[in-house]
Amino acid sequence: EAKSQGRNTAVFFNSAMEERLQARLQLQRELHRAVLSEEIELYYQPKVDADGQVYGVEALSRWLHPVKGMISPVDFISVAEQSADILILGRWVLRTACKQLVEWSKNPDRQHWTMAVNVSVKQLREPNFVEQVEEIIEQFGAPADKLIIEITESMLLGNTESAIEKMNRLKSIGVRFALDDFGTGYSNLNYLYRLPIDQIKIDQSFVRSMNKNKSQKQVTKSIIALGHALQLKVVAEGVETKEQFNTLQEQGCDLFQGYFFSAAVRVNALQNDYVPANATK
Ligand code: C2E
Ligand code: MG
Ligand code: MG
Ligand code: MG
User: Fold this and answer.
1) Which atom of ligand 1 is nearest to the CA of 264?
2) Where are the alpha helices (DSSP H) in 81-213?
3) Which one in 65, 169, 234, 236 has a CA-CA gap of 20 to 30 Å to 150?
4) In what residue span(s) does the EAL domain sit (predicted)?
């Protein structure tokens, strides 16, 4: 009895694994088609300043699957990263974001908005990454000083010098960099001051736990102090409540991003009369 059950369990386990593998392969095939057919869309999440005014947006990819509905980048970016699809997708994201930036640059109410774009480690490691970004900026005439590229600490692992060199070249034409998910990765404080970054983004996990106890509040306070000591702007991610916003504001945080103000929205939601929720002015 026990023996046959054990065998059944093993068979079941194997077919579950097989199913997962098949599902992943199917997702990979569908993603390849999606990347080519523009089923992927950019949504934009505002970053606001301490007065609740929009400072800019972060472009976030959304896959609008014809049958499965909206698929989160958490589920498809890692799949895209297993093939050259991430390079095609990444380039499309940069182009689309830069085109939008040009649209906003013609609008007096929007021309101060920055556009942050997430890049993948595979993109950054492309030998001609700098030329690709320069070419897109030139082709559309995008204001380079409004483009912010978001990278994470883990992307620099084993690759720091070459990444710094590329970042410096892009910085020389005005492009800025933000260090995303700060505090969750391999935080090497030895090289932090050497990175040509303009912003650090406090990971949302710290923001989530900050109102739970006093010592958690010290974490965000310390990250803000560190950022300011390095002359960086500090952005808080995942701000969901007034309490979190107030505390971070008191701690001197410069920019805020989160559902308290707005989730990522379609571009047509950002009309001229657009004001994020809970904006004080
Ligand atoms: P990220 O760059 O750290 O982006 C922040 C994520 O937090 C976004 O999830 C955003 O929708 C979500 N978020 C914003 N405010 C709140 C909040 O108040 N509460 C909570 N719970 N979440 C909030 P999303 O859009 O699902 O993206 C997840 C990750 O996928 C991004 O993390 C980024 O690493 C990656 N990603 C998204 N779009 C792209 C892309 O075009 N290219 C690349 N390479 N990666 C992307
Ligand atoms: Mg980001
Ligand atoms: Mg983040
Ligand atoms: Mg992230």
Assistant:
1) 11
2) 85-105, 121-125, 129-140, 160-171, 189-192, 204-209
3) 65
4) 24-278
